[in-house]
Amino acid sequence: MSEKPDVNAAYALDGVEDVKALYRDWAGTYDTDFVEAMGYIYPREVARVFAERRTDTDAPALDIGCGSGAVAEAVATLGPVEIDGLDLSAEMLRVAEEKGLYQQTIEGNLLTRLPIPDDTYGALLSAGTFTHGHVGPEALDEVLRIARVGALFVIGINGAYFEEHGFGAAFTRLTEAAEITAPDYVDCPVYADGSHDHADVRALVAVFRKS
């Protein structure tokens, strides 16, 4: 990329190749330049909701769009969890692997068939993937495929993106088709730092189970 990656570039992404290019260039400094510098607490919030709602049978877990492992780091502070990481970016996965938090990491595109068998996971969680320029509700059918019946989902979705890009309609469709339980939505902040332009961004964490 011609400019240093940042959150504005992330929100402006358009398509898979843009996503790969951004995170290829950002992987080495993502934790310091974004997670720390921006006060990015979204992974912590998703981990908190997951810890509150999970049972002993909600395993193994998959961190969808795991990036450098911020969600797994937050989950690890709340108790032991068997968790894998999935991401589109090989470079971000290498950073995550070095932290030793995941049982395994998986490179895959949520908009195509993932290299994961049906009915594999007992829980799926995500922070920062279902947002501007990344992944829309069209990926929900694929993540449901790899989940066991009864699996817990804790899926964070950018609040401004939720209705505009059809998440509400998608959840209604899946609920009416008896593919999922009716979602419970938890509103949460994305950033703790109030000194930047995105400080007021909020997310809706959709909590439901596969029927």
Description:
- The protein is α/β, with parallel strands linked by helices and 211 residues long.
- The protein has a single domain, classed as 3-Layer(aba) Sandwich (Rossmann fold), CATH 3.40.50.
- It is built from nine helices and seven strands.
- The chain has helices at residues 7-11, 16-26, 30-36, 42-53, 70-76, 90-98, 140-145, 159-164, 167-176, and strands at residues 61-64, 83-87, 105-107, 121-130, 147-158, 184-189, 202-209.
- A seven-stranded mixed sheet has the order 3-2-1-4-5-7-6.
- α4 packs across α5.
- The longest helix has 12 residues, at 42-53.
- The protein is globular and about 40 Å long.
- 41% of the residues are buried.
Question: What is the distance, rounded to the nearest whole angstrom, between the alpha carbons of the first and last residues?
Answer: 43 Å
Order of helices and strands: HHHHEHEHEEHEHHEE
- CATH class type: Alpha Beta
Proportion of residues in extended strands: 15-25%
Helices and strands: which structural class?
alpha/beta
Work out the helix count: 9
What would you call the quaternary organization? single chain
Main beta-sheet annotation: 7 strands, mixed
Q: State the CATH architecture.
A: 3-Layer(aba) Sandwich
What is the CATH superfamily? Vaccinia Virus protein VP39
Low-pLDDT ranges:
none
Count of individual domains: 1
